């Protein structure tokens, strides 16, 4: 068995196990990732993120869900990666470029009086609305806005967005009263519609440009926060006339500011925190 150093980090409650693999090419299999992510028998987290060297950017984020499956992107995860590489002296840049499964993303760091990162803004790129690119199997290639979704004997209205990973956004009266843990996995695994499965957001309005979101994440279940999901929610809310282009989104773990810039790119701003470090035998 090998000993591996790790750092537990969280972005508004969306917690992952971070492993610095910039100096090696450490790989873990699906079973090992599941064991590390187990909240009773492992370290516990929504998954594992490796921080690797990159020839395309300054660093690479290599992400895996708690069930061991790989994922393209995590908005809260990339903020934590940015904090880690700066706070641990791997870079002195305050705008490093991170390579992800969704492409190269530039981040902007805000540091405190101790030169530690407290806020991270991420240029999340342009939302993808073309069904085949999300991907979703649909009757045409027009954006899917407030369309019917039949599930568990009821019809919900959904909007489909990709922020490098697929999202299904559903507006409901009260997400806390909605059966997220029953309906979420049914939609996630509706592969006849979402061939690569899907993240599902259940959303309500709290005021002008103020929304509340619960997320059922593909491969992880319900999480306290989802950054790419928040970007998808803002996109869906604006395109369906529910909100503007600069919104606050409350999640169970905290709040994010999401802006749709004149460039067409979405900017996400929020905190990132280091929880603890340790060594684990694998």
Automatic annotation (TrEMBL):
Alphabetically ordered keywords of this record:
Amino-acid biosynthesis, Cytoplasm, Isomerase, Lysine biosynthesis
Signal peptide, first to last residue: none
Which catalysed reactions does the entry list for this protein? (2S,6S)-2,6-diaminopimelate = meso-2,6-diaminopimelate
What GO MF terms are annotated? diaminopimelate epimerase activity
GO terms under cellular component: cytosol
Detail which positions bind substrate: 14, 65, 75-76, 165, 199, 217-218, 227-228
- Location, primary (coarse class): cytoplasm
Single biological process term from Gene Ontology: lysine biosynthetic process via diaminopimelate
What EC number(s) has UniProt assigned to this enzyme? 5.1.1.7
Subcellular location as annotated: Cytoplasm
Query: Pathway, per Swiss-Prot/TrEMBL?
Result: Amino-acid biosynthesis; L-lysine biosynthesis via DAP pathway; DL-2,6-diaminopimelate from LL-2,6-diaminopimelate: step 1/1
* Record has Ribonucleoprotein as a keyword: no
Q: Where is the active site?
A: 74, 226
Q: Where is this site: Could be important to modulate the pK values of the two catalytic cysteine residues?
A: 167, 217
Is Cell wall biogenesis/degradation included in the keywords of this UniProt record? no
Role noted for this protein? Catalyzes the stereoinversion of LL-2,6-diaminopimelate (L,L-DAP) to meso-diaminopimelate (meso-DAP), a precursor of L-lysine and an essential component of the bacterial peptidoglycan.
Concerning its family, UniProt says: Belongs to the diaminopimelate epimerase family.
The record's HAMAP family line, in alphabetical order, gives: DAP_epimerase (MF_00197)
Q: How does it assemble?
A: Homodimer.
Q: What is this protein called?
A: Diaminopimelate epimerase
| Organism expressing this protein natively | Leptospira fainei serovar Hurstbridge str. BUT 6
Organism placement in taxonomy: Bacteria, Pseudomonadati, Spirochaetota, Spirochaetia, Leptospirales
**Gene for this chain:** dapF
């Amino acid at each position: 068995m090998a000993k591996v150093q790790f750092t537990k980090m969280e972005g508004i409650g969306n917690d992952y196990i971070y492993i610095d693999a910039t100096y090696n090419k450490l790989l873990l299999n699906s079973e090992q990732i599941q064991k590390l992510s187990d909240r009773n028998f492992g370290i516990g987290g929504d998954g594992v993120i490796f921080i690797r060297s990159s020839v395309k950017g300054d660093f690479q984020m290599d992400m895996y869900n708690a069930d061991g499956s790989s994922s393209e992107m995590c908005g809260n995860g990339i903020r934590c990666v940015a904090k880690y590489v700066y706070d641990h002296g791997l870079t002195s840049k305050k705008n490093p470029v991170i390579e992800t499964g969704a492409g190269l993303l530039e981040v902007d760091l805000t540091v405190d009086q101790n030169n530690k990162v407290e806020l991270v803004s991420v240029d999340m790129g342009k939302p993808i609305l073309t069904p085949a690119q999300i991907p979703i199997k649909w009757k045409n290639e027009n954006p899917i806005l407030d369309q019917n979704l039949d599930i568990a004997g009821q019809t919900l209205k959904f909007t489909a967005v990709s922020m490098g990973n697929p999202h299904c956004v559903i507006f409901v009266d009260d997400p806390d009263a909605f059966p997220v843990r029953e309906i979420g996995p049914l939609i996630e695994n509706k592969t006849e519609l979402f061939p690569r499965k899907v993240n599902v957001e259940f959303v309500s309005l709290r005021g002008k440009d103020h929304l509340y979101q619960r997320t059922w994440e593909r491969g992880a279940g319900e999480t306290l926060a989802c950054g790419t999901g928040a970007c998808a929610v803002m996109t869906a809310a604006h395109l369906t006339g529910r909100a503007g282009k600069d919104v606050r989104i409350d999640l169970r773990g905290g709040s994010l500011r999401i802006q749709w810039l004149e460039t067409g790119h979405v900017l996400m701003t929020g905190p990132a925190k280091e929880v603890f470090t340790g060594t684990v035998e694998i």
